[in-house]
Design a protein that fits this description.
Helix 3 packs across helix 4. The protein has a single domain, classed as Metallo-beta-lactamase, Chain A. The strands form two sheets. It has a seven-stranded mixed sheet with strand order 6-5-4-3-2-1-14. It is globular, with a radius of gyration of 17 Å. The termini are close together. The protein contains eight helices and 14 strands. Helix 1 links the parallel strand 3 and strand 4. It is of the alpha/beta class.
Length: 256
């Protein structure tokens, strides 16, 4: 498997980095994890978005799904798509309210929303705790600690495992998802402090502790807020985890 960072800025896009979005591929099989602000353009810079076989949205905060509306426009109105997007509807795995929330983001007003149905170009599948197959990848999803319905993912293929935390505070579900993972893509929104709100995000230290507790082989820190000091987050993680640690960078590509 290969992981390409489409965007990694936490909470809002940064001047040189889109918000959250990641491309996972093995040969011609491609899935995207989250599609935050600016990530569709980043995807199109390297891959035709029509070649994506599946989309997983960890939760419905805008920095993880805002570009879904643009993807809808692309799939509905591209004058010369490589295949018929209505005959080949994209599988979208999202929280239960995904179809209605994403339709509301697409519609321009209440009148249009009343008639907006995105299932002409998408097939929606509600997420839950469990395992499913998405475009040839085995995907385990688990509810994590965040204020809204949110999921972390474990993606396996050919004996390799990638864990993506999505947005979450520390929780047992993340340890299970990341167990012995070849690569742990963990959010680390801020530096560690006792005053940080619970069940919201990981600090650099907590991301390192997760990697150590789960036995992950490599740790990539992502979702750093633009106002967070990356060096401080990296140092915190290194105090808790003695394996390889990298700061995510938009456009970076990693092989498992």
């Amino acid at each position: 498997m290969h992981l390409t960072v489409l965007g990694c800025s936490g909470s809002v896009p940064a001047p040189a980095a889109p918000a959250s979005g990641y491309l996972v591929e093995d040969g011609d099989e491609r899935i995207v994890l989250d599609l935050g602000n600016g990530t569709l353009a980043a995807l199109a810079a390297s891959r035709d978005p029509f070649t994506v076989n599946g989309l997983l949205l960890s939760h419905l905060h805008p920095d993880h799904c805002a570009d879904f509306a643009a993807l809808t426009v692309l799939r509905r109105y591209h004058p010369n798509p490589p295949h018929d997007p209505r005959a080949n509807r994209l599988a979208v795995h999202a929280p239960a309210e995904g179809p209605t929330r994403l339709a509301a983001a697409y519609a321009v007003d209440a009148a249009e929303l009343a008639t907006t149905d995105l299932t002409d170009v998408f097939r929606f599948h509600p997420l839950g705790d469990g395992t499913r197959t998405v475009a040839g990848f085995t995907v385990m999803s688990a509810r994590v600690a965040h204020p809204c319905e949110a999921y972390g993912f474990r993606i396996e293929r050919a004996g390799q495992a990638l864990c993506y935390t999505g947005d979450s505070g520390p929780c047992a579900a993340l340890v299970d998802l990341a167990q012995d993972a070849d690569l742990l893509l963990a959010e680390a929104t801020w530096t560690h402090a006792a005053s940080r709100p619970a069940n919201l995000h990981l600090s650099g230290r907590q991301a390192g502790e997760l990697a150590a507790a789960s036995g992950a082989r490599r740790l990539i820190l992502t979702h750093l807020a633009p106002w967070t000091d990356p060096a401080a987050v990296l140092a915190e993680a290194g105090e808790a985890f003695d394996g390889e640690i990298t700061l995510a960078r938009a456009g970076a590509r990693y092989s498992l």
